[in-house]
Amino acid sequence: MGEVDPAFVQDPEHRPKLTITEAEGIPLIDLSVLNSNDDREAIEKVVREVGSACEQWGFFQVINHGVPLEKRQKIEAVSREFFAQSLEEKRKVRREESSVCGYYDTELTKNVRDWKEVFDFTLEDPTIVPVSPDPEDNSLMHWTNKWPENPPQLREACEEYIREVEKLSLKLMGLVAQSLGLPEKRFNEYFKDQTSFTRLNHYPPCPSPHLALGVGRHKDGGAMTVLAQDDVGGLQVKRKSDGEWILVKPTPNAYIVNVGDIIQVWSNDKYESVEHRVMVNSEAERFSIPFFFNPAHYTLVKPLEELVSEQNPPKFRPYIWGKFITHRKLSNFKKLNVENLQIYHFRVQE
Ligand SMILES: O=C(O)CCC(=O)C(=O)O
Ligand SMILES: [Fe+2]
């Protein structure tokens, strides 16, 4: 048995089983009708597929999604080149406490270290966010991207790619909106001064895949995540029906889409943000690229008025997204003695 630093070791109940549960897996949705527009019937079918995937799984995959393959291949190639460099080189763009942007290899999920290294960059540059989670403190600051010198094409590949996944994410939010009986563009206003970012993930081979995780179990705090994974596999989703961890089998060039906490709140629990995690393995390294589609920092997140009624009263108290994100960032950065902030902290007691 190999040895890993105890900081990476998961509590026994959270360690992965190395035998995989084979299951049908999350729904695969073909988005080609969105490119040929105007076939209302076909679009409505896709809307229904998205709605039932959000309800049953909180996760789905999409194909024929409109992101040019060449843009995806370009960012995948620069990501490999970036992580193949020495630690010294990568640490030249090291992320600091005051920003999410740059390279980082000591992220914590629920106070246990993840077996991975990452490079984060935002869509808006600069991105405006609150300085602190303290509700009394109204001061704001900027996150600015930190581009490495090498590989030299990294910046262009990242900037081009993130605009393409943003377009796809807006289309997906349009489908989610329609599936909730709302106008297609209902959510667009929240993304005007968005705090979205993309992460390049590298999971090196791990000597103890039964003890550590690439990313520990968590829910995504933003609105929606749109993820490109390579052909290695390792992402597991907690199946709502029985709590079993189900492997998301790689589908070439597909995107994996999941409901984040904010959609759960907006939909007043109709759609749920589902727990997921990443297993590592002892032989193959793995790369993935999630895009976290997040609203403006000043967004007051609460169940949408159109979706609540006397029979279905709001299940969450309103909270400010920027305050939530700064709280989360602090806990991912250093080991805290308090639990991570979660949306259930805003749940209305029944
Ligand atoms: O690498 C993956 O497949 C998923 C990563 C993830 O869940 C996250 O970064 O939030
Ligand atoms: Fe995630």
Secondary structure topology:
Blueprint: E1 28-30, H1 32-35, H2 40-56, E2 59-63, H3 69-83, H4 87-90, E3 102-104, E4 108-109, E5 112-113, E6 117-122, E7 127-130, E8 140-143, H5 154-179, E9 197-203, E10 215-218, E11 224-229, E12 235-238, E13 245-247, E14 255-259, H6 261-266, E15 276-278, E16 286-293, E17 300-301, E18 319-320, H7 321-333
Parallel strand pairs: 1-2
Antiparallel strand pairs: 2-14, 3-6, 4-5, 6-9, 7-8, 9-16, 10-15, 11-14, 11-16, 12-13, 12-15, 17-18
This protein binds 2-oxoglutaric acid (AKG) and fe (ii) ion.
GO molecular function: dioxygenase activity; metal ion binding
Keywords: Iron, Metal-binding, Oxidoreductase
Pfam family, one: DIOX_N
DSSP summary, beta strand count:
18
Q: What structural category do the secondary elements indicate?
A: alpha+beta
Instruction: Point out poorly predicted stretches.
Output: none
Share of helix, binned: 10-25%
**H/E series, N to C?**
EHHEHHEEEEEEHEEEEEEHEEEEH
**What value does the average pLDDT take?**
92
Task: State the helix count.
Answer: 7
Strand order of the largest sheet: 1-2-14-11-16-9-6-3
Can you tell me the overall shape? globular
Structural overview:
This protein is an alpha+beta fold. The protein has one domain (6-346): Jelly Rolls (Sandwich), CATH 2.60.120. It has helices spanning 32-35, 40-56, 69-83, 87-90, 154-179, 261-266, 321-333; strands at residues 28-30, 59-63, 102-104, 108-109, 112-113, 117-122, 127-130, 140-143, 197-203, 215-218, 224-229, 235-238, 245-247, 255-259, 276-278, 286-293, 300-301, 319-320. The strands form 5 sheets. The chain has an 8-stranded mixed sheet with strand order 1-2-14-11-16-9-6-3. A 4-stranded antiparallel sheet has the order 10-15-12-13, with no helix packed on it. The chain has a two-stranded antiparallel sheet with strand order 4-5. Strand 12 and strand 13 form a beta hairpin. Helix 2 (40-56) packs across helix 5. The chain is globular and about 55 Å long. Bound molecules: 2-oxoglutaric acid and fe (ii) ion. 2-oxoglutaric acid (AKG) is lined by residues 199, 201, 215, 220, 227, 229, 235, 276, 278, 288, 290. Fe (ii) ion binds at residues 218, 220, 225, 276. Residues 194-295 form the Fe2OG dioxygenase domain.
